[in-house]
Each structure stands twice: as C-alpha cells, then as structure tokens.
C-alpha cells in the first residue's frame, strides 16, 4: 500500500547507499537505481510487453512511468471481454497527500473509468501500528486523502471507500488468512524479528485482506497499482490466495504426481517427441518416455519396452522424473488436466468429481480429466469451490510505477518539505518550491546550449512527465527534446513548470472544496471512536 514516508528516487535520481540491494521494503526508504533488475530478481515483467493490449492507456502507461506488472494480462483480458475486474490501492495517512500519491489516485480512477470495480482504502490500522500515529492524526490526514481522491474524479457511488479499522468484513477475512500465514514468512518477506510488534504483523494480514477483499462477492481479476517497494505485499497476497483455494489445476501426463514445474516440462517434452516418432496406432507408455530420457529416441522399444535397470542416476528434473516413469511401467502417457484436492471439504470434492464430464480417472487426492482444457478446468474448479463455501480467489495482479525524485535531488521525503509538493500546499508555495528545485541542467547557459540538458536526471522534467503535461504527450516530448538539444534553458523551464504547478494546485484545491459535500454523503467514517 502507498506510504507517505521517504519515497525512493527514479533510476535517473541520485544514487544512495543501498541503492542496488533491491531489498523491497514497504516501510523503508531504499532506492531503485536500475528498474531492470526488478525483472530479473523479483519476476516483475515489463509493462511495455502488454501496453499494446491496453485500451485507452493512461499517460503514465504511455510514458513508461508505469514500468512493470505482475500478471496484469488477466486484468486486460477481463477488460477486453467486458467481464468483471477490480482495482484497489490503500493509503497510509501519515502526512499530507502529495503529488506522488496522485499517481496512484489517477491509476485507480482510470481503472474505474474502464469499467472496473474500484476500491480505495485508508490503511489506518497500519498507520497506527507501524508508524505510531494517534487516531486523531489519522482522522485528519484520512479526510485529506479522500478529498483529493474525489476531487481528481473518483466516483464514490460506483466505487468503494473504507477504513481498515471500520470494515468488519475485511477484519474477518484477515483472521482467516492469518491461519494460512506463519512467522517464518514474516521474517523472510519483511525482515520481522522478535522485536516486531504483533500489531504490525496483524496489519500485514489486514493488507492481504484488503487486496483480496474485492473478490468476496465474486472472484475476479484484481490489480493493485503501487510502487515496486509494495511488491512484497502483492506476492504474499498471491501466495495466500492460492493457499485458500479448494482445488489446484495443473497439466499432467500420468497417474503419478510430479514435484515441480520442471518435471512437468520434462514430461511434456517427452510426450511431444514420442508423438512425432510413434508408429501408427501405437500407445505411448511411461516406459517409452523413460527409455527416451535414458538413451534418446533411438533407444525407444515400441514393442514390449523393458524397464530400466537403474533409473535414478544423474541430476535435475530428468533424473527425478525418470524413476517415476520406470515405476509406472506400461501405464499410458497421456496429456490430461488434473484437479488437486488442496483444502476441499469432502462434499466439495465429491461435487467436483460429479461435475467433471467426459473421460476421467478418480484418485484419492486428485481427479484427472482427459476431455477438458486448462481454462475450462480452472473455471469449473472455481465454480464448485464457491458453490461449496470457498473463496475461489483469483491471484491478484500488480502494476508498478517509477518513484519521483525529490525536488531537491535524491529522495522525495515527507520529512523534507522542500523535496515534495503537497496537494494541500498553497499555490504560491508550490510555485516557489518548483522555482527552487534542482535541475538536470549544465553549469552555464552556454554549456547548456552547446551540450544540451539532461532531462533524464532532472526532477523538474519529471514534474512535466508525471503531472504537469497531463494527457498531452506532445507537450511532454517537446519539453524533453528542447532540453536535450539545448534549446530550453533551466530558468525558463522552471518558470513554466512553476506556473503550471500553481495553476494545478489552485484548480485542485477548488475542486476539493466542491467535493466536501460529496464526501459527507459517503458511508465512510471520518472520525474514529478509537482514541489514543
């Protein structure tokens, strides 16, 4: 969820200690100096790979400010097919909402405009437990976040607003999810230790319930727009979603169970290779696959294949699956979809067996279907689960935006007022902060004209790209090119940016005043009964 503490710099910002460690800490201030490393180390995918499939992409997407995603394709498929999907993000009210938060506000609103069920929550339990804020302080900041969200275009009649402390349904779900979590995971994912408050750990499980909560009424793809420092929450929520499921669905090729996707890939490859070589009318058997793995296609005995004398030598997936094939002997090797019993009640498992049409094989812990494809099997498993009291959660997705560099260079920090612009700043204050900002310019105007500026290392250019150019890509590109070519000097550039910032803040605060009544009409409680 979105924090209000020190915000890491973009990859064009100043390097700081620990910048390359890539320890993604939802409550810390580590920086990301190379976003590409996130693809390699954490499995985040490039957003560029899915951009062409996004309808009416937001300018944050078009400008690669949203740089990565985790499993966003399932959300885009629902969007394309006019099926239900949801978007959710939370805000920890530890200070004023600022222009960094506006990115997340905009992403939630954009998904709402695309037809998604949009949810924005106030992470007040997290603020109280992790940051030690009083409930009075939380109330004040929460109201400011909600007013800015509504002023930017969030529709409360079509979307959902709530506070963690006031939503009993979320708290109940958090309790159930906590059964699936253990302390060793909190240690490995978040670095918690014996000094960590229990309430802090509880707030994490509450955030898992926040992320999965939009699916309580109906399982559906759900995206969480955040900075990459919040990815641990997305990954943990995906794990918990899987653990609560009644059934797992995988591909399989024989009655025995495999230990990994790598073993499954070995079986898939063996079946495909044998299918190309098999004599007409021949049945492909497990022993054929064992002989293939041991000696290649030329070693396969299509008639009366003999078991291997030793099928346990070697390393890797081939070596571990080989004895399983050997032990299965003459059993046919056939592709099928497998339903695994994970947490199903006896009644639900029996209902699944009855629901699987066509040829099937029923085992103690799984059911194999030979006539269904993977997508149909997953839909059936989810339907049976929900019909029998399960959640049927779809693994949540994430999209990740770059962090804004502080106006003074380095990190944007709520504790350094000059480094950020609050959405509550007086327009004149916003103007002065931009005028005083660090730039990516050269030492002199002459050098700037000769060598050009460095917009990729300029906090002021980021203001244009992230906020001030709004939906006008041509304007953002023109500012970039004029700076790089030396046609735009820093003084004039900052003056234009400062004027635009003053206009934005004045307009935004006028809209905030207009939505005061709209906020009062929502069900969200603005004053907590808790006092400490």
Automatic annotation (TrEMBL):
**One Gene Ontology cellular component annotation?**
cytoplasm
Which keywords belong to this entry? Aminoacyl-tRNA synthetase, ATP-binding, Coiled coil, Cytoplasm, Ligase, Nucleotide-binding, Protein biosynthesis
Q: Reply yes or no: does the keyword ATP-binding apply.
A: yes
Going by the entry's taxonomy, the superkingdom of the source organism is recorded as: Archaea
UniProt short sequence motif 'KMSKS' region, positions renumbered to this chain: 411-415
Q: What does this protein do?
A: Catalyzes the attachment of tryptophan to tRNA(Trp).
Q: What is the protein's name according to its record?
A: Tryptophan--tRNA ligase
Gene (name only): trpS
């Amino acid at each position: 969820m979105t924090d209000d503490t020190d915000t890491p710099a973009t990859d064009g910002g100043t390097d700081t200690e620990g910048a390359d460690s890539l320890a993604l800490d939802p409550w810390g201030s580590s920086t990301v100096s190379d976003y590409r490393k996130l693809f390699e180390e954490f499995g985040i995918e490039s957003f560029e790979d899915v951009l062409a499939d996004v309808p009416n992409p937001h300018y944050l997407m078009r400008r690669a400010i949203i740089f990565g995603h985790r499993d966003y394709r399932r959300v885009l498929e629902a969007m394309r097919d006019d099926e239900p999907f949801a978007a959710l993000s939370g805000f920890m009210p530890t200070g004023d909402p600022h222009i960094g938060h506006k990115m997340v506000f905009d992403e939630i609103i954009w998904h709402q405009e695309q037809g998604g069920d949009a949810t924005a929550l106030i992470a007040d339990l997290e603020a109280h437990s992790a940051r030690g804020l009083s409930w009075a302080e939380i109330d004040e900041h929460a109201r400011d976040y909600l007013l800015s969200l509504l002023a930017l275009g969030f529709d409360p009649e079509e979307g959902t607003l709530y506070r963690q402390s006031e939503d009993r349904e979320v708290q109940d779900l958090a309790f159930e999810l906590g059964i699936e979590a253990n302390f060793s995971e909190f240690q490995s994912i978040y670095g918690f230790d014996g000094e960590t408050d229990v309430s802090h750990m509880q707030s994490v499980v509450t955030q898992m319930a926040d992320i999965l909560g939009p699916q309580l009424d109906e399982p559906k793809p759900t995206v969480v727009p955040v900075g990459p420092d919040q990815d641990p929450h997305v990954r943990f929520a995906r794990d918990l979603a899987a653990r609560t499921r009644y059934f797992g669905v995988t591909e399989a090729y024989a009655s025995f169970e495999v230990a990994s996707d790598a073993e499954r890939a070995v079986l898939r490859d063996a079946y495909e290779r044998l299918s190309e070589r098999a004599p007409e009318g021949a049945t492909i058997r497990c022993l054929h696959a064992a002989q293939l793995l041991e000696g290649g296609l030329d070693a396969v005995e299509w008639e009366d294949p003999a078991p291997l004398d030793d099928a346990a030598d070697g390393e890797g997936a081939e070596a571990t699956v080989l004895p399983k094939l050997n032990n299965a002997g003459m059993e046919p090797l056939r592709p099928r979809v497998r339903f695994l019993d994970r947490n199903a009640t006896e009644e639900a498992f029996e209902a699944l067996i009855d629901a699987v049409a066509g040829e099937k094989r029923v085992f103690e812990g799984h059911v194999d279907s030979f006539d269904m494809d993977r997508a149909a099997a997953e839909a059936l498993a989810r339907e049976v689960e929900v019909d029998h009291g399960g959640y049927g959660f779809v693994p949540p997705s994430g999209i990740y935006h770059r962090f804004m560099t502080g106006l003074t260079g380095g990190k944007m920090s709520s504790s350094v007022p000059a480094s950020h612009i609050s959405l509550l700043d007086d327009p004149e204050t916003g103007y002065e902060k931009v005028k005083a900002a660090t730039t990516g310019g050269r030492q002199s105007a002459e050098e700037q004209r000769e060598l050009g500026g460095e917009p990729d290392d300029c906090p002021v250019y980021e203001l244009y790209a992230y906020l001030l150019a709004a939906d006008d890509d041509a304007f953002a590109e023109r500012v970039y090119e004029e700076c790089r070519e030396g046609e735009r000097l820093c003084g004039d550039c900052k003056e234009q940016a400062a004027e635009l910032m003053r206009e934005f803040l004045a307009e935004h605060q006028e809209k905030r005043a207009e939505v005061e009544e709209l906020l009062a009409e929502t069900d969200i409680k603005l004053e907590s009964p808790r006092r400490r």
